[in-house]
User: What shape does this take?
Amino acid sequence: MTRLLASLALLMAAIATPTHAAEQVVAGLSQHSVSLTTNFSGSQIFVYGSVKHVAPAEEEAPLQVIVTVIGPAAPVEVRKKERTYGIWINGSAVRIDSAPSFYAVATTGPIRDILSFTDELRHRIGLDHVIKLIDPPEWAKDQREDYRKAVARIREAEGLYSIRTGTVKLIENELFRTEIKLPADLIEGDYSARIFLLRDKSVIDVFEDTIEVRRAGVGRLIYTSAQDYPALYGIISILVALAAGWLASAFFRTFFPN
Amino acid sequence: MTIYLPIAEVSVNAFILIGLGGGVGFLSGIFGVGGGFLMTPLLIFIGIPPAVAVATEANQIVASSFSGVLGHWRRGNVDVKMGGVLLAGGLLGSAVGVQIFSALRALGQVDLLVALCYVVFLGAVGSLMFIESLSALRKSRKGGGRVQRRRHNWVHGLPFRMRFRQSNLYISAIPPFGVGALVGVLAAIMGVGGGFIMVPAMIYVLGMAATVVVGTSLFQIMFVTGATTLMHAIYNQTVDGVLAVILLVGGVVGAQIGVRVGPRLKAEQLRILLAMMVLAVCIKLGFDLVTTPDEFFTLSGGGGGH
Assistant: This one.
């Protein structure tokens, strides 16, 4: 009897939580792996999906979609140039604890209008939440935001970060698609794609997937040998250089004697 | 045509790289400089991480200097004995230089040191060479005869005399060893072969016969950059094989053309050309130090690459 009551209570609780909303998101990516071959010059990932209506819609507010793709994160050192004795020199470094190597956001509308601050925080959507500077040095405490923003600005200029408002097309509140451009300067790692379905500024469902970005072909061979057999790799590099030097010399002597 | 570089982890235009390699190789063949003083800043400018640029550039210089040495060797323009003494000094100097580099890196001011080193040494060497060759050129125009450079200075009064037949010298081994060591220190700090300092030093300090200066300088550079490549490969894994191959294809061809074109140019004109190039790089770097930058912030990997 108590067990029945407990499960009933659980059921009630489940119905009350927003995660069991009337809609769910089902999505797919055009590719789950990207090969960084030597002729890699950037790529495009198509994200497409549909909204599954599990119960008849009660609310009239339109659905919204946000797609984010985030690359492997690493610490970054940021230095600010300062003028000293007439020349611009790098000041001390502020170590950003973590910043993604790639971050792309595509939305159906302006983030401020379609996403509440609470859910933005909860799901860590946007540059403010992915560039982490937890404990800046004492002297930089009041410039914390300047340093964080510098990372965002510089990486955006390099095409590594992008926030593209209105680039997700949602048709009939049911089908949506967008494309995420991957730049040529991509680094190896697992890129995580998340697709958020929203209504009334809150997230009602999330779909997650992973894109594996890996070196391939000759590039992979070169990278792994440089890592695993550094001395041998160095010697081979020198031998290749000597061979090329000799070859050019021999070639010119044969064909352009003087 | 863009190429993704597996170790630099950036994508670059292959034709730009081949062109850069060819241009720098050409200079290498003509002047006996490795070309690193031009190439390293250029590579960094097109977006190659500095650590990879320095290491890979060393590897390319091995190729272009070897190609150049072979050309000069056949003409009998390499003084192996002199090269050996310079090299002994060079290896010692670069070992010391690497230590200085690490110490300054710990202080966080290595970028500034490198930039200032470039400006000071390029400026000094460039202007000296420019003034000297300009006046030599003027004299040779007026007099018509060959310029007799001063053959006897303080250098010739030191002990441990050795005969360097091909250099047409009978001098103490200390000055060449010292020149090699000084160049080695600077080379390690600036990430270059050091030819642009060594060539003028060989001409003006040692008073070597002009014909063997270039070949002998390349001979020494080849070994120093070979050692540098190996050290970077072992300790930093920053030699990018793909980048190196692209650069050296252009580099070795350029060096061969340079070796053939060089002798047809007048020595004074040649030095003026090199002096102007050195000064141009110096002015560009100096300018960057004093002009207000567009972006005040710079990023570097947390690992602390320089």
